[in-house]
């Protein structure tokens, strides 16, 4: 039972354009959501998070949008850079920090120069 | 920032042997550590949650006698894969968090770089 899903396994975007990565979840108890970037054979790197009391959080080129009624979140990267090419995972939790995170299936982003 | 290390980064062993993987929080006290497993091109699957000084809580389907987790100190957790078999080959990742309120990383999780286990 995959509680967190990323339906697009891969995405290609031209450098300078916007990358939009999507994530859906099924458990309405999730209260805290995160996006991680991951390279092969490395641990995930935290990008940005959002709690359920917000619908948007922005940090530099990264913006996360949360639609609780649709149980959907998205990560926008603008402008996209070749260095952004990696696998992106969304994660959900019932709270931040010491609560377990449930990860999505990942989306491989390729930014073309 | 908070740093989590794992050792070894890569290990190859023969079927039937046991392998120990260490996860250390280098500059903070980790009251909680998590162990994940990632198969190629798949998601990170949570295996277990360990709180310092307590028995680990395993996720459904994870054999606790197969994957022994010890979190004896606030800076070290170990995962031992006992009697490893080729199907245990995977990428194992730990993360660490602190519920200590004056900790600089209170209520955030930091991930280690992972350990690639190959069982022949």
Structure description:
The complex is a heterodimer of chains A (113) and B (120). Helix content of chain A is 0%, strand content 53%. Chain A is mainly beta and 113 residues long. Chain A starts with a strand and ends with a strand. Chain B is mainly β. Chain B contains no helices and 11 strands. The radius of gyration of chain B is 14 Å and the shape is globular. Chain B starts with a strand and ends with a strand. The chains are: A mainly beta (113), B mainly beta (120). The A-B interface holds A 2, 36, 41-46, 89, 95-98, 100-106 and B 4, 6, 31-32, 34, 36, 41-46, 49, 91, 93, 95, 97-99, 106-114, 116.
Count of helical segments of chain B? 0
Low-pLDDT stretches of chain A = none
Shape of chain A: globular
The ordered H/E elements of chain B are: EEEEEEEEEEE
What is the β-strand count of chain B? 11
Main beta-sheet annotation of chain B: 7 strands, mixed
**Major sheet details of chain A:** 6 strands, mixed
CA radius of gyration of chain A: 13 Å
Question: Layout of helices and strands, plus pairs?
Answer:
The complex is a heterodimer of chains A (113) and B (120).
Chain A: E1 4-5, E2 10-14, E3 19-25, E4 32-38, E5 45-51, E6 56-59, E7 62-67, E8 72-77, E9 86-93, E10 102-103, E11 107-112
Parallel strand pairs in A: 2-11
Antiparallel strand pairs in A: 1-3, 3-8, 4-5, 4-9, 6-7, 7-8, 9-10, 9-11
Chain B: E1 4-7, E2 10-13, E3 19-25, E4 32-38, E5 44-51, E6 57-58, E7 67-73, E8 76-81, E9 90-97, E10 109-111, E11 115-119
Parallel strand pairs in B: 2-11
Antiparallel strand pairs in B: 1-3, 3-8, 4-5, 4-9, 5-6, 7-8, 9-10, 9-11
Short recap of the structure:
The complex is a heterodimer of chains A (113) and B (120). With 113 residues, chain A is mostly beta strands.
Write a concise keyword list for the protein shown above.
heterodimer, A: mainly beta, six-stranded mixed beta sheet, five-stranded antiparallel beta sheet, 11 strands, 53% strand, globular, B: mainly beta, 51% strand
């Amino acid at each position: 039972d995959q509680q967190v899903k990323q339906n697009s396994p891969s995405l290609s975007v031209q450098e300078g354009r916007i990358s939009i990565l999507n994530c859906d979840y099924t458990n309405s108890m999730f209260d805290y959501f995160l996006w991680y970037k991951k390279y092969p054979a490395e641990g995930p790197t935290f990008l940005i998070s959002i709690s359920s009391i917000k619908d948007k959080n922005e940090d530099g080129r990264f913006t996360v949008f949360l639609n609780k009624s649709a149980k959907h979140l998205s990560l926008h990267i603008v402008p996209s850079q070749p260095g952004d090419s990696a696998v992106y995972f969304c994660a959900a939790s019932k709270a931040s920090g010491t609560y377990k995170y449930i990860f999505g299936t990942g989306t491989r982003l390729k930014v073309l120069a | 920032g908070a740093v989590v290390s794992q050792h070894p980064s890569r290990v190859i062993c023969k079927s039937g042997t046991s392998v120990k993987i260490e996860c250390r929080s280098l500059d903070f006290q980790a009251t909680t550590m998590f162990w994940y497993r990632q198969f190629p091109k798949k998601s990170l699957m949570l295996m277990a949650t360990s709180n310092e000084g307590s028995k680990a809580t395993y996720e459904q389907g994870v054999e606790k006698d197969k994957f022994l987790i010890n979190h004896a100190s606030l800076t070290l957790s170990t995962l031992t894969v006992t009697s490893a078999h080729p199907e245990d080959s995977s990428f194992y990742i730990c993360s660490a968090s602190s519920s200590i309120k004056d900790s600089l990383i209170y209520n955030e999780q930091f991930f280690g770089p992972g350990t690639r286990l190959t069982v022949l």
